[in-house]
Amino acid sequence: MVPLCVSQEGAISTHTGDIEFLMEGTISTLSGDIEFLMVGTISTLSGDIEFLMEGTISTLSGDIEFLMVGTISTLSGDVEFLMEGTLSTLTGEN
Prior knowledge:
With about 90 residues, the protein is mainly β.
């Protein structure tokens, strides 16, 4: 099966703020691989949310890698977060 490749970039303006985003993806269901990158900025009345999501999922090999980085700016201050994970089920690593 031919992999599905998706690339999308855009900006959405609402009455509460703006949403800017970049999405990339590769999906190959027969091989079990999913690669994805998502970068975005959400501007609201109370502050901004910036985020980066990146992931690789390979179900046949049992590997899952994921990274999520973000900054939430509010009226009271900033919140920064980092989530990382590696799951390798065939080798028992998580």
